[in-house]
Amino acid sequence: MPLFDRLVVTAKSRVIHGRTRQASRCVSTIVKNNADSGVSSEPPIRKSVFVSQSTDVFTNLAWEDWLYRHYDFTNHHVLLLWRNDPCVVYGRHQNPWKECNVQTAKRRGITLVRRNSGGGTVYHDNGNLNLSFFTPRARYNRKYNLHIITRALFREWRLESVVNKRDDIVVEGNYKVSGTAAKLGRPNAYHHCTLLVGVDKNSLRLALERKEDDIVTNATISIRSPIKNLIDVNADIEMDKLITVIGEEYLRTKALVLEDEERELSQQEMELQFIDPTERLYTGLDKLTSEFRSWDWNFGRTPKFTVTRTLEATGHDGKVQRLNFNVEVQNGVVEEVKMNPPGGSTMVDFGEDVSVIAANFCGAKYSHEIIENIIAAISCKAIAPRTRIEDESNVIVTQ
Q1: d(CA 192, CA 129)
Q2: Which end of the chain offers a freer environment for a tag, N or C, measured as fewer CB atoms within 10 Å?
Q3: Where in the numbering of this chain does the BPL/LPL catalytic domain appear (predicted)?
């Protein structure tokens, strides 16, 4: 028995029996895979829907990565549905201190984690549904995947949504309900996206509020967009029902084109498999989970950046001089601290050698607090940068 089938059987997952409905086609969302244009026959590809019973973001990201690394999707495509407890998830090439309010997130018990795919930062809680579509890379087709979602929303609730040029799903013009990212490898690929159902917008706003505008970096910067929850558009939408509806839509749709199967599917073919991902079922999962939990992954993988501030220092003669303060951070660790007067002028003598004091902080793990500690140690005063006033009550960053 192939590894894929053996693991599914071993999982002994309880299933929810989807209702078998008469095949109908949502014409407004029908698009075909470019690779299959004009082709009416399909290879024998099975499809499965896994629903994670874990709400731990590290476990879910590890399971997603495990599937990507170990499964053969050649003749068996998979949709993974998962939800997380409150967390901020940022892209592989992003700077967490630039993307979100790290201090507020930690204070509110919101987990911070880096994922394996690119793209921008998102906030998750139990009002957000995550969807991961697994295929061989040769069949990667994010438009197909996103239209599965739009078809399901229209079929069940007559909710109209559109996939825009950025591959976001939007409602009522330009309100975003879903962002997207992907991991493309050989031979496998996955496309994953969020779906805002009933997210706590206040927690989202606080967690994603940008506080450290003095960071200079080449890391990927998220783009902010206006958002809405699906329940803001249709109050009848409920998470468990949505999981079933999207799962059924995925299973009833042909594997390579956005058309309903031409035959009525059996009850077994419409089953969603609810699985608790554990080391017993997926050997090596604990190791992957530990890697996703680690400081080295979540912060040490941050692209090199520089924190720039302007300080005021008072010399022995009582004169105040402004200084340019730069902290260079590599792999999440303070590498060098530099202080120079603007315009190349001579630095005044204001006590202990600043360079000696600053050097004591080199090698420390970066945090907002360490910057404040350095400034306090050299007896300087930070000049607050101009802050921009921005209403973020209805904004989320792009995944």
Answers
A1: 11
A2: N
A3: 73-258
The last residue of one of the domains, among 273, 299, 325, is 299
Could you give the C-alpha distances from 300 to 52, 96, 213, 274, 303, in angstroms and in order?
28, 11, 20, 34, 8
Residues 66 and 205 in one domain: yes
The kind and range of the H/E element at 6 are: helix 3-10
Statement to judge: residues 241 and 154 lie in one domain: yes
Q: How far apart are CA 192 and CA 145, in angstroms?
A: 9
Please give the Cα distance from 119 to 397 (Å, whole number).
10
Q: What is the pLDDT of residues 322-337, one digit of tens each?
A: 888 889 999 999 999 8
Q: Range of 166's domain? A: 46-299
Q: How many domains does the chain have?
A: 2
Kindly tell me if the per-residue pLDDT of 39 is higher than 60: no
Whether 243 and 51 have beta carbons less than 8 Å apart is answered as yes
| Axis crossing angle, helix 57-70 with helix 285-293, rounded to the nearest 10 | 130
Q: What CATH number has the domain bearing residue 348?
A: 3.30.390
Q: How many CB atoms lie within 10 A of CB 124?
A: 27
- Quote the pLDDT of residue 89: 97
What is the pLDDT at residue 342?
66
Residue 60 CA to residue 198 CA, distance in Å, equals: 20
Enter the pTM of the model. 0.84
Query: Strands, E, within 164-319: which ranges?
Result: 169-171, 175-178, 180-184, 188-196, 215-217, 224-226, 271-275, 305-314
- φ, ψ of residue 99 in degrees (nearest 5): -90, -30
Name the token pair of 328.
Answer: 């260079």
On the CB side of 324, CA atoms within 13 Å amount to: 11
> Do residue 188 and residue 274 come from a single domain?
yes
